[in-house]
Description:
Strand content: 35-45%
Order of helices and strands: HEEEEHEEH
Number of helices: 3
Distance between the termini: 43 Å
Mean pLDDT: 89
Amino acid sequence: MGLSGGLERGDSGMSLQQRLAAVAEAILPxxxxxDGSLTVQHDGTFSxxxxxxxxxxxxxxxxxxxLAWDLPLDAKLRATVGEHAHQTLLGTISLTEKGAAxxxxxxxxxxxxxxxNFPAAGLTDEALGTLILMVLxxxxxxxxxxxx
Length: 148
């Protein structure tokens, strides 16, 4: 498995990582991280975008979006997240349980994330940006439903 991070150059002369950065910067507040990933903000959420090379010629964009964090973990939250996970087509919604909160509060907490990986070869910049916004908008909709 190659780990070049999409540095192979396409016909445009730009690597997928460079194209991803240019597309993200054009549509969202974007921060370049030291590890090469991008952090973007959209509608109350933040996300990590990175290029991962699975095999020669197969570069994937890996998107992880934090939808909500430090939520009280209960049966209602589990059911709501499960419902959204079942209904969501662009990405996988997951619940990550955390240990008991500090400060004397013994209740468990959870974070809710959306993950979506997709091959980006052949996508125009416009299509890449549209797909990213569609996924991030789905996550923002789930966030609103979780937080009421």
